[in-house]
Amino acid sequence: MAYLPWTFKIFWGPIIDSFTYRVMGRRRPWILFAQSGMALTLIAMLWMGDLSANIGLLGWMFFFHNCFASLQDVSCDALAVDILLPEEQGKVNGAMWGSKVIKSPENFSNFQAMCFGTAGITAAECVKKIVDKKISNDLPIVVSGSTGGVGSVAVGLLSKLGYEVHAITGKPNESDVLESIGATQIISRDEYMSEPTKALDKGIYASGVDTVGGDILAKMISMISNQGVVSCCGNVGGAMFSSSVFPFILRGVQLSGIDSAESPIEVKRELWGLLSDSWSVDLEKQTKTVGISDIGPEIDKILKGGQVGRVVIKHGD
User: Fold this and answer.
1) 91: CB partners within 8 A, 6+ apart
2) Do 190 and 168 form a contact (C-beta atoms < 8 A)?
3) pLDDT interval class at 126 (50, 70, 90)
4) Where are the domains of the chain?
5) SS3 for 134?
6) Measuring CA to CA, which residue among 282, 268, 285, 273 is closest to residue 112?
7) pTM of this prediction?
8) What is the structure's pLDDT at 196?
9) Does domain 110-275 have CATH number 3.30.420.10?
């Protein structure tokens, strides 16, 4: 619900074009209005008190905040179109987005880079949290959503780094694929969730990579041993989860959120450097290449939870 307002951008354009206050300029009133609304919603959140008791209200506050944020985004873009010459617009837009990307490693082909893609860099950041904590390989690492893009790359990376990897999957028939990329034990999702989640379960895993969220994340946290790390990067299994404080205060477990899209450019540069060097894994066997006209069936597989591994889209002939 919180991100729904970003779909409203298609409507903001006609509105800000139709209603203007010429004294202040065509776009400035809308920008100021949007920024004021964003500030007011943030201030209102500060006065909400116990957020855990007002989850529904908090969701609505984020909804209204993002209404104003999406309006500001469109208004600023409209202002840029107004003041820039047509031949300047592409350069300025490129400069804006260019600050968020880095050059592909020299020893990577375009195909290799796209085999990793956003899922690969997300998996690398998940694994980096575990490596930075100097987690021992005495116990296995557990990975959820292991046949997906992030999960499958995480399995391969952890295996390459010498960890025993236990892969949780809703597709037990893909066990051969998971074993080929480094998983040492395949755990059916239904089997994993067959017992109720405990406040503190046996600590049988050194750390974990969760790409799913929801109840699976809650159970994973309860099964991590002392000083372990759980890297969390997904919510397909649910945006909410319930956990006791015991794993955190009795075992020192660390829950680390992964937001690879907005990670600092220095972090992205380091991760791509690792993927092209000491963390290099061959993803060709778990990657399929499709033309643009064949994207539809692949998207359907993703929506139905049937996609396995990576998909690279071929542009042109």
Assistant:
1) none
2) no
3) very high
4) 4-98, 110-275
5) coil
6) 282
7) 0.74
8) 93
9) no
